[in-house]
């Protein structure tokens, strides 16, 4: 597992590409510069690691496009120490970006094969979420709620109500909602019963499925 100056140069260019597409949050761009994305992919894909594209990983899933990761993370407005729930650990790349931003990350993965790989892999790179859970992300993580932010990295056919209930007042849920094409949606909790909803255009994600396999 090597991370060389050549890789760092490619990450700097990737951060510039993502910034060129509209990402302004310096903390997000710094995290993109730091996380060695090539290590999260099969070594045969290493040449593609710093292109702004999604790529296949284990269990029929994908490692998200860096712009999408940056876009969702920017919407969350992460501050150091924020308690963030991630639904869909996947490769762990989004998890690592959040950890680079000094968030306290709780992350849930429903694909057992992926969970086993990422659970071993992230600590080897020095990334240590507060908790990594094999489970059903639809239900969230009630025992650790409330959260400053919740990020869903798979397309939800509809909004899982349990996730809204686990937000702090002032907290944000960032979730792609839709069947085949998703609309990136952000819910901000304004009070115990009041939520503000904003939409940010179309994206394509693998589906968020109920119940773990």
TrEMBL record:
GO terms for cellular component: cytoplasm. GO terms for molecular function: protein-L-isoaspartate (D-aspartate) O-methyltransferase activity. Its main location: cytoplasm. Its EC number is 2.1.1.77. Gene3D superfamilies: Vaccinia Virus protein VP39 (3.40.50.150). SUPFAM superfamilies: S-adenosyl-L-methionine-dependent methyltransferases. The keyword S-adenosyl-L-methionine applies. It is found in: Cytoplasm. The keyword S-adenosyl-L-methionine applies. It is an enzyme of class 2 (transferase). One of its GO terms (biological process) is methylation. The active site is at residue 64. Keywords: Cytoplasm, Methyltransferase, S-adenosyl-L-methionine, Transferase. It catalyses: [protein]-L-isoaspartate + S-adenosyl-L-methionine = [protein]-L-isoaspartate alpha-methyl ester + S-adenosyl-L-homocysteine. Catalyzes the methyl esterification of L-isoaspartyl residues in peptides and proteins that result from spontaneous decomposition of normal L-aspartyl and L-asparaginyl residues. It plays a role in the repair and/or degradation of damaged proteins. Belongs to the methyltransferase superfamily. L-isoaspartyl/D-aspartyl protein methyltransferase family. This is Protein-L-isoaspartate O-methyltransferase. It comes from Sinomicrobium weinanense.
């Amino acid at each position: 597992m090597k991370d060389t100056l050549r890789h760092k140069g490619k990450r700097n260019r990737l951060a510039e590409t993502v910034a060129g597409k509209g990402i302004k949050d310096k903390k997000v761009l710094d995290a993109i510069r730091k996380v060695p994305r090539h290590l999260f992919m099969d070594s045969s894909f290493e040449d593609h690691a710093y292109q702004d594209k999604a790529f296949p990983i284990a269990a029929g899933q994908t490692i998200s496009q860096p712009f999408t990761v940056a876009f969702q993370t920017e919407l969350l407005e992460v501050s150091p120490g924020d308690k963030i729930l991630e639904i869909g650990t996947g490769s762990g790349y989004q998890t690592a970006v959040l950890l680079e931003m000094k968030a306290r990350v709780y992350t849930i993965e429903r694909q057992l094969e992926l969970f086993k790989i990422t659970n071993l892999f992230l600590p080897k790179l020095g990334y240590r979420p507060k908790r990594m859970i094999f489970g059903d992300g639809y239900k969230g993580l009630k025992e650790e709620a409330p959260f400053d932010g919740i990020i869903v990295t798979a397309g939800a056919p509809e909004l899982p109500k349990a996730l809204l209930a686990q937000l702090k007042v002032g907290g944000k849920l960032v979730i792609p909602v839709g069947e085949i094409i998703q609309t990136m949606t952000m819910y901000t909790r304004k009070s115990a019963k009041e939520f503000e909803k904003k939409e940010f255009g179309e994206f394509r994600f693998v589906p968020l499925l109920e119940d773990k396999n």
